[in-house]
Specification:
alpha+beta; 3-stranded antiparallel β-sheet; 1 helix
């Protein structure tokens, strides 16, 4: 007599993989979302330096990253800076300063924080 339990297991396993595959891929490809992180990219008086600050609105300390980009008086000169540091819970912290490098900073053009 031949036993069919081995073949049944393979078919059952393949059926489970094929049946759950689309479900699992949908769960795994769902993008993560996070709360908005308050940050400021501010051109300081004199327009030769920018200050990058952020507030940790979480109830616990967090490692934070802020990126700010500015335009200057020079054509196609857009200095960008990325700052990373720990920020205590509920505190606003100056993350870093960006010197303009000889040109005046004109405006903040884009930024993001995490």
């Amino acid at each position: 007599m031949h036993s069919r339990t081995g073949g049944f297991r393979v078919v059952l396993l393949v059926g489970l993989v094929l049946g759950l595959g689309p479900l699992m891929s949908g769960l795994l490809s769902t993008p993560a979302s996070a709360e908005s992180v308050p940050f400021n990219c501010t051109i300081l008086p004199g327009e030769e330096m920018a200050s990058i600050t952020m507030t940790n609105s979480l109830a616990s300390d967090a490692s934070c990253i802020v990126t700010c980009k500015f335009s200057t008086t020079k054509y196609d000169d857009n200095p960008q800076i990325t700052c990373a540091k720990p920020v205590p819970a509920g505190k606003e912290v100056e993350m870093c300063l960006l010197p303009a490098g000889g040109d005046k900073l004109v405006k903040f053009t884009e930024g993001r924080a995490a």
